[in-house]
């Protein structure tokens, strides 16, 4: 079964963007990176009202692969509209290691990053990752286990290479599996 609307969720630096790019290529679905909508040029956070308007317009479309968390209050409408939910459940230590590598790549100019509200050194960025990992993961576990338990869900280990993750997703979709933790 090929899904037309996929919500890809997980912690910061869990691998959502990388997986979205690869999975979007395979499925042909248009990819939306919520960080690109959440942050204004210069690193300021978009207002919740402005983000909500854009988010609602995206959800109304017939096909999408939306990756990211965005504002917590807008997560439920996205999960409700999604035909499939993919939760990239990456351990905090891996997210922090990736965050540090991302920060280093930004300094070297090898990576064009979406600005983060902390904007400074690793400790503030690490605090942001830790905070969102803790609060966002708890919210996701609650929503996916209670409110959206009826939805097709896949929980993937974000430590795996993107090629393995795509192979797992492709295999699950082709076999018609509607919900299966990996």
UniProtKB/TrEMBL annotation:
SUPFAM superfamilies, A to Z: P-loop containing nucleoside triphosphate hydrolases
Residue ranges crossing the lipid bilayer per the database entry: none
Domain of life, per lineage: Bacteria
High-level lineage: Bacteria, Pseudomonadati, Myxococcota, Polyangia, Polyangiales
Protein name as it appears in the record: Adenylate kinase
Organism of derivation: Chondromyces crocatus
């Amino acid at each position: 079964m090929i899904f037309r609307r996929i919500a890809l969720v997980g912690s910061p630096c869990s691998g959502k963007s990388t997986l979205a790019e690869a999975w979007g290529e395979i499925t042909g679905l248009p990819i939306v990176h919520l960080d690109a909508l959440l942050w204004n040029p210069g690193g300021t956070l978009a207002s919740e009202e402005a983000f909500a308007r854009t988010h609602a317009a995206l959800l109304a479309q017939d096909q999408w692969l939306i990756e990211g968390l965005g504002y917590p209050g807008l997560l439920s409408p996205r999960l409700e509209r999604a035909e499939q939910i993919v939760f990239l459940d990456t351990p905090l230590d891996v997210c922090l290691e990736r965050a540090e590598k991302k920060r280093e790549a930004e300094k070297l100019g090898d990576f064009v990053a979406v600005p983060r509200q902390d904007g400074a050194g690793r400790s503030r960025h690490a605090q942001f990752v830790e905070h969102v990992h803790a609060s966002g993961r708890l919210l996701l576990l609650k929503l996916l286990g209670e409110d959206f338990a009826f939805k097709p869900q896949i929980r993937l280990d974000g430590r795996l290479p993107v090629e393995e993750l795509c192979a797992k997703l492709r295999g699950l979709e082709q076999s018609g599996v509607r919900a299966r933790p990996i």
